[in-house]
Amino acid sequence: MTKSSPSARERIVAGAADMISRRGLNATSIRETAKHARAPLGSTYHYFPEGKQQLATEAVRYTGAWTARALRKELAAGPVAGLRAFLALWRTIVVDSDFRAGCPVLAVSIEEPADDETPAALAAAAEVFAEWERLLADALREHGVEATQAAQLATLVVAATEGTVAMCRAKRSAQPLDDTAEQLQALITAAIGD
């Protein structure tokens, strides 16, 4: 049995995630996303009648779910394996894109909303970060780390990784991520060993 190709809607969402990871939310348009996803512009509006915010929200959720699946799988082997996989995933993204892509969840999080409301995409980004933190904290607790320390370490891992991805893009080097990986691994190993 062969794997089916992604639907037009899935291609558009993945394309939006890629565009946002490279350009940011404000510089990503529906028209350019449709072109990037090789989808008709009309189908973009069909699948996302609420426009750019709806598409951005779906792109954030898509990235969150994709990353959480990979993290959950690797965390089955323990927190250190999960950490290594999480960092390796982002290293691959920045290096393979020649330091042009980062995390669309972060990109949505740092851009100023157009109005006083919290846009759905920003709320989705908060949920994604919380999910990644929860997965990491759960794995740490399962390996004997006290709940408060596990939660704080999980937040540190997500925050350090996201910030380091941005540094890698700015410096055009994976060295910041490699350095961060070494230190985070030492912290997690020490916490598990306590």
Give a structural overview.
The N and C termini lie far apart (about 50 Å). The protein has helices spanning about 10-25, 30-35, 40-45, 50-75, 80-95, 105-110, 120-140, 145-170, 175-194. It has nine helices and no strands. It is about 75% helix and about 0% strand. By secondary structure, it is mainly α.
Strand-helix topology:
Blueprint: H1 8-23, H2 30-36, H3 41-47, H4 52-75, H5 79-96, H6 104-110, H7 120-142, H8 147-171, H9 175-193
Helix pairs in contact: 1-2, 1-4, 1-6, 2-3, 4-5, 4-7, 5-8, 5-9, 6-7, 7-8, 8-9
Order of helices and strands: HHHHHHHHH
Helical fraction equals over 70%
Q: How would you describe the shape?
A: elongated
Termini, distance in Å? 48 Å
The mean pLDDT is 92
What attributes does this structure have?
single chain; 194 residues; mainly alpha; 9 helices; 75% helix
Summed up:
The protein is an all-alpha fold. The chain has helices spanning 8-23, 30-36, 41-47, 52-75, 79-96, 104-110, 120-142, 147-171, 175-193.
